[in-house]
Amino acid sequence: MATVWKSTNQKSTDQATNKTISRAMLSSWSRQQKLAMIAGFAILGLLVFVNACSKQSSKSALVAVSSPASTPSTSAVAPVPELAATAAVQPVPTKKTPKKRPANVTYSDANSGILFLYPRKFALISSNRDQPHNAAVGDVPMNFVQPGGVAVATVALPDNSYPGTDFGSAFFNVNVNRNVSEEQCEHFAFVDASNADGEPVDAEKVKIGSTDMQMTSDFSGTASQQSETQYYHSYNNGACYEYVLGLGTEGFATEGGIKHVDRNEVFGKLEKILTSVTVKANPVEPEHVAEQTGAGVAIGKE
Fold first, then answer.
1. Residue 26 belongs to what domain range?
2. 115, 118, 153, 232: which could join 126 in a potential S-S bond, CB 3.0 to 4.6 Å?
């Protein structure tokens, strides 16, 4: 019996001891497990925090990188009001005023070397074939002592230049004769014969601008038509140049309120053209001009 008790007691003691050890081990493992779990949670929390910070940094980086890309769209929209404002303040373009044409026109002829100015409102007739024609006078003859004269150009005043007067026509023309010597150029085929005793009036030497010229005049007419013509000669480039200033009147100035035109005023306009005349030193030979123009007609140039 004693032996049996002892064995049972020993067994109980062993079991108690094992339970104590198991509890102690369990109790000890639980603390470690808790520490491990706490450490795991702490590490997990740290990882979550680091991950969150990393995501936040990535977002900031993305925002920083994407910001320049969004700038163009902003700048693309911004100029619209600027353009509108610029368009609003731009001044209204003013109409261009047309340039006024000069009052005078330049005429030049390569064949004769003649160049002169005449009013734009005057009519230009340039030809080496046709003689100038005065409506109130008829054909106006050249006044060279030798044949061979060539008409270069004629400028005529408008027919309505002097309304209410007996003005018929007025003109300025240029003729050239290469068959006349310098001495012959000082003379005229006909001279003024309007003096009281009917004797011819000798030509007189005059200075037009800087050029010395010989001058004579002629007057003729009827009761209803009168003509007065002035001839000027000068020698240049081996040729005799003749300048003709003419005035023709028609009608009866004493009837119907018609007045006599101021002859001095008319000739004053024609003399301004004569004063502007220049002759080039080396004119083109006539045959060369004929080849270029076909008809030998000199055209006035503005």
1. 2-89
2. 153
